[in-house]
From TrEMBL:
Recorded superkingdom: Bacteria
YCII-related domain sequence ranges: 26-116
Family stated for the protein in its record: Belongs to the YciI family.
Protein name (record): YCII-related protein
Protein species of origin: Pedosphaera parvula (strain Ellin514)
One Pfam family it belongs to: YCII
Amino acid sequence: MSELTPKSDYMLLFRGTNWGDKLSPEQIQQVASDWMAWFQRLTQEGKVSSGHPLMNEGKVVSGKKGRTVADGPFAEAKEAVGGYFYLHVDGMDEALEIARQCPGLDYGAIVEVRPVAEKCMMRERALELASGAGQLAGANA
């Protein structure tokens, strides 16, 4: 029995919310249809488990204890995330190949490919620091 290669999880983040501004309604409909067909094919192949477009509205929370709340993201921002796909593929090369198939690329969309971490890196760092502090305290006792 051959050992299966474990799948890796990746996010495709679709950046650029104004890529269709210069397209006719017919062109926008065609790109939207192509995008949906792409998503459905990847879903049928078991490579995508979810994906959704994001609204061009929301809030941005920042500052200590989230005290600053501002309107955003801004639809006119070229780098705004307009949607995502959650991929289960064999690695970065396959994720990149899928990203290159994005129907919006020809019209200015940008696809960011990011691996999904198995663990929260901030938590791991905190545990590492706590462990080091504990070892240091034990050495000084």
